[in-house]
Structures are given as C-alpha cells and as structure tokens.
C-alpha cells in the first residue's frame, strides 16, 4: 500500500493552499511530514516483526552471509530506489542487489531485511531526518543578509515550470545528505542560468525531481520569511 495516493496528495495541496497564514501552513506541513514518518516506521516494524516470528531460524542462518562494502552500498541505494509502499519491496530489493552485485552471493528478502535493520539501528536515520529540516532552515537563514527577506528567485515554478502535479513530487522527507547536495548544487548553478538551472540542480540529487528541488527551496524561503515577519511584529509591539 502506498503511503499517499494521488487523491490524498491533491487533498493535501488543497488543504495547504486553503490556510490563511504562513505559520499555519508551516505547522500543517510539518505535521503531515511527522505523520508520514510514523507510517514509514510502522511499516518497517511490521515487516521485521512478521519476518522474525515466521522465519526466525532461517533468518539466523541467512544473516551470517558476508556483506562486502560494495554490497552494503548496493543495498543502501536499493532502499532509496524502492521506498516504503513498493509492492513486495524487500523481494524487489533483494533481486536488484543480486543483479548488481559481483560478490557471487545470492540473497533473499530475509537477508536484506536483516541487514537493513542493522543499518537502521546504526545510523540513527530518524534523528538525521529530523535534523535535516532544522539544519536547512539555519543554513538559509544564515546566508541571508541581515535585514532582508530571502529571495523567491523570481518564483521559479511560475516562470519556468509547465503546469505541474504532485505526481512529480517525492513524498519522502529530505535528509541531511540530500539537503547538502541541494545547497552545493545551488552554489554551483546560480540563478543567472535561467530555465535550465533547476534541471541541472535536480541531476545532482538522486531520487529528487526538478519539482522536488523547487518546492524544497520555496518551503525553506517561506519558513525564513515567516520567522522574520514574526520578529518584526514582536519588535513593533515592544515600541
């Protein structure tokens, strides 16, 4: 089952655009992202629990298969390529890793689930996801000259985008690695490039489309503007 259907994404957009203030929009967006993270975590736990209860002994044997560095990198890439909601996700991931690996080791869905669990426990991915938004916000705010509002870059989606739908959007939350790639790409390809800028930027970030990058930037800009506006209101009230 997919995390969000097309109809749900359209409803999300309508609800988001119907909110009156930037603060309400920000809170609504962050709430939806938290709900999605909860769904992802629930699916992961359900899969691991089912696997452990039905295939405990076999899983213990298969988990002893050696994982080389290259195979681990293939697994990490496969997990990103086939996100939660993909039909027969772990079987698909196992097949993809087997097709790409040169180690000669054949792995099944129990092998990849077991290794994915190890990686999940070691990299503290949930904490990284939560920190990604905070770090991105701080970076954009820090790079903005004092006393000015962040630029919308001439509203890139209106100037250069054809009519778009949420089908183009990757609903998975941005992590620190993706945010750093976005920041670097924006420095590498300045706004003077015009229409091709966001195409070039999106090519630097695996699994993120042109629309994803534009929406991410616009979202961060709105967060900074909202904070600046709030500071202005507080300052005026003190006078």
Automatic annotation (TrEMBL):
Pfam families: Myb_DNA-binding (PF00249), Myb_DNA-binding_2 (PF23082). GO terms for molecular function: Hsp70 protein binding; ribosome binding. Residues 166-221 form the Myb-like domain. Transmembrane segments: none annotated. PROSITE patterns: MYB_LIKE. InterPro entries: Homeodomain-like_sf (IPR009057), SANT/Myb (IPR001005), Zuotin/DnaJC2 (IPR044634). Keywords: Chaperone, Nucleus, Repeat. The keyword Mitochondrion does not apply. GO terms for cellular component: cytosol; nucleus. One of its GO terms (biological process) is 'de novo' cotranslational protein folding. Residues 139-161 are annotated as: Disordered. Gene3D superfamilies: Homeodomain-like. Its main location: nucleus. This is Myb-like domain-containing protein. It comes from Medioppia subpectinata.
């Amino acid at each position: 089952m997919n995390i969000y259907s097309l109809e749900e994404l359209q409803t999300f957009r309508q609800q988001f655009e119907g909110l009156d203030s930037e603060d309400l929009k920000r809170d609504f967006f962050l709430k939806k992202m938290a709900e999605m993270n909860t769904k992802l975590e629930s699916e992961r736990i359900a899969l691991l629990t089912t696997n452990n209860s039905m295939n405990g002994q076999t899983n213990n044997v298969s988990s002893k298969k050696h994982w080389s560095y290259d195979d681990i990198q293939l697994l990490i890439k496969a997990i990103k390529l086939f996100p939660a909601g993909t039909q027969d996700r772990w079987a698909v991931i196992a097949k993809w890793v087997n097709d790409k690996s040169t180690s000669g080791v054949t792995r099944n869905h129990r092998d990849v689930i077991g290794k994915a669990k190890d990686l999940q426990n070691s990299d503290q991915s949930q904490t990284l996801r939560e920190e990604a938004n905070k770090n991105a916000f701080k970076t954009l705010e820090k790079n903005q000259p004092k006393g000015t509002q962040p630029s919308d870059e001439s509203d890139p989606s209106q100037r250069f985008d054809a009519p778009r739908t949420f089908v183009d959007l990757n609903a998975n939350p941005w992590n620190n690695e993706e945010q750093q790639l976005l920041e670097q790409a924006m420095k590498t390809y300045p706004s003077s490039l015009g229409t091709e800028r966001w195409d070039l930027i999106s090519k630097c970030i695996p699994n993120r489309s042109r629309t994803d990058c534009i929406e991410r930037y616009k979202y961060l800009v709105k967060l900074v503007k909202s904070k600046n506006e709030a500071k202005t209101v507080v300052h005026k009230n003190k006078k």
